[in-house]
Write a structure and sequence with these properties.
The chain is of the alpha/beta class. It has a single domain, classed as Alpha-Beta Barrel (TIM Barrel). Helices cover 46% and strands 17% of the residues. The chain has 14 helices and 14 strands. α2 runs parallel beside α14 and α13 packs across α14. The longest helix has 28 residues. 46% of the residues are buried.
Length: 372
C-alpha cells in the first residue's frame, strides 16, 4: 500500500505545475478524435519526463468541438500506462448525475492501475442539458453532491458501505476494487461561488478554481477559503486525508519569442474563452435553484463575451502569454496570493501538438525551476 506520506503530496514546498485538458477540436483542426487523443497522450508522456505534477481531465457531455472528454477515467487509465510519476486527476466528476457507487468503482480502478496516483475532484456541474439527459434535477444539486461525496468517502475506508440518505440507500455494499492510497486519494472540490470556497474548507478538501472569473475576484475567494480553513481546522498540519491546497486553471503559452507567442496564441485563446462562456450561457439565462451565483455572474460574462480579446484576458489574469521571464512574473503573483497548483491549459487546447510540446519543454526548463 502507498501512504500519503510516502508519496509526499502534502509536504513538497513550492507551487506545483499541473496540466489541464478539455480535449478540444476547434473548427479547422484536421485531426480525428483518435488523433486528438493520441496527441494528448504523447503530451502527457512528455510531461511525465519533464516533471509536471498532475494531469487534470474534465468531464463534459454533448459539447462537440469544445470538449471531447466525456469519459475521462478511460483516458486517464490510458495515461497511467504512459507515465510513471505523473498524477492523474478528475477535474471534475459531476456527482449529481453520477451514481456514487460507480464513481467509487472507477476511482479505485484508476488508483490501482496507476499505483496510487489518483486525484479526485468533484463538483455539481453546470449544464442544464447534462442534468436533463441523465435524469437529475438541478434544484437538488447540493444535496445530491453531499450524499454522493459521503458515499465515495465511505468507500475509501475499505469496509462495506451502509448509507441511508434522501437520495441514496445502501446496505452492506462491498465496493471493489479498493483504493491503493492511504488514508485515501486527495480530494478536491470545484469552486465558483464564494460560498463554495467556504464549504470546501469545512469539508477539509482542496479547491479547484476554473477559468470562469477574473483574477481580482479569485484572489478574494482564496482569502475566504484560507480564513474558513483556519476557523475550521486551525494550524494543524493536513493529516488523515485533509487537503488545504488551491489549484487554479489558467491558459498559458510560453515561447522564447514573446511576439510569436502572442501571434499564435491570439486566435486559439479567443476561441477557447468564447466557447467556455458559451457553455455557461444556458445557466446564466435562467435562474436555477441553488445556482443563484451563476445568475449574479451573468452581467460579467455578458461583458466578457462582447470583449473577448487576448489582451483583455491577460489584463484580467485569465491568460498568460509571453516569454519565460514574463510567465515567471505572472505566475509568481498567483503563488504569492496562495495558489499551490497551477493547472496549465497550454495553448488553451487549440494549438497544434508540436507547439504545445515546445511550450511544455520551455516551461519545464525556464519557468518551473523558479518555483522549486
Amino acid at each position: 500500500m502507498i501512504s500519503l506520506l510516502d508519496t509526499g503530496i502534502w509536504a513538497i514546498p513550492g507551487m506545483h505545475f499541473d496540466l489541464f485538458y478539455e480535449l478540444s477540436l476547434p473548427p479547422g483542426d484536421p485531426r480525428s478524435e483518435a488523433e486528438l487523443y493520441g496527441d494528448a497522450l504523447d503530451e502527457l508522456a512528455l510531461a511525465d519526463e519533464l516533471g509536471y505534477r498532475t494531469a487534470w481531465l474534465v468531464e463534459h457531455h454533448f459539447m462537440p468541438g469544445y470538449s471531447h472528454s466525456s469519459a475521462p477515467e478511460t483516458f486517464l487509465a490510458a495515461a497511467s500506462q504512459r507515465s510513471r510519476r505523473l498524477r492523474l486527476g478528475h477535474a471534475i466528476v459531476p456527482l449529481p448525475y453520477s451514481h456514487p457507487v460507480r464513481v467509487a468503482e472507477r476511482l479505485a480502478s484508476l488508483d490501482v492501475l496507476s499505483n496510487g496516483r489518483l486525484e479526485f475532484g468533484y463538483g455539481r456541474g453546470f449544464s442544464p442539458q447534462e442534468y436533463a439527459s441523465f435524469g437529475a434535477e438541478m434544484k437538488h444539486s447540493r444535496s445530491l453532491t453531499q450524499e454522493a461525496l459521503d458515499i465515495v468517502r465511505l468507500s475509501f475506508g475499505g469496509e462495506p458501505v451502509n448509507y441511508q440518505g434522501r437520495h441514496f440507500q445502501l446496505e452492506g455494499i462491498d465496493i471493489v476494487p479498493k483504493v491503493v492510497q492511504r488514508p485515501h486519494p486527495p480530494i478536491w472540490s470545484a469552486a465558483v461561488s464564494p460560498e463554495s470556497f467556504e464549504l470546501a474548507a469545512e469539508q477539509g478538501v482542496g479547491v479547484l478554481v476554473g477559468p470562469f472569473k477574473p483574477w481580482f475576484m479569485v484572489k478574494e475567494d482564496i482569502k475566504r477559503y484560507r480564513r474558513a480553513w483556519q476557523n475550521q481546522h486551525g494550524d494543524a498540519p493536513p493529516t488523515a486525508g485533509l487537503n488545504n491546497r488551491v489549484g487554479m486553471t489558467v491558459g498559458i503559452f510560453c515561447l522564447e519569442d514573446a511576439h510569436q507567442a502572442h501571434q499564435l496564441a491570439k486566435p486559439a485563446f479567443e476561441w477557447f474563452y468564447h466557447n467556455l462562456l458559451s457553455q455557461t450561457r444556458p445557466i446564466l439565462q435562467k435562474l436555477y435553484d441553488s445556482y443563484e451565483y451563476y445568475k449574479r455572474m451573468g452581467h460579467l460574462h455578458t461583458l466578457l463575451s462582447k470583449t473577448i480579446r487576448l489582451k483583455v484576458l491577460e489584463t484580467m489574469g485569465m491568460a498568460i502569454v509571453g516569454d519565460p521571464a514574463h510567465c515567471v512574473h505572472k505566475l509568481k503573483k498567483l503563488q504569492k496570493a496562495g495558489v499551490d497548483h497551477v493547472l496549465l491549459a497550454v495553448g488553451a487546447g487549440a494549438l497544434p501538438s508540436e507547439q504545445v510540446q515546445t511550450s511544455l519543454r520551455l516551461i519545464a526548463e525556464r519557468v518551473m525551476p523558479h518555483f522549486r
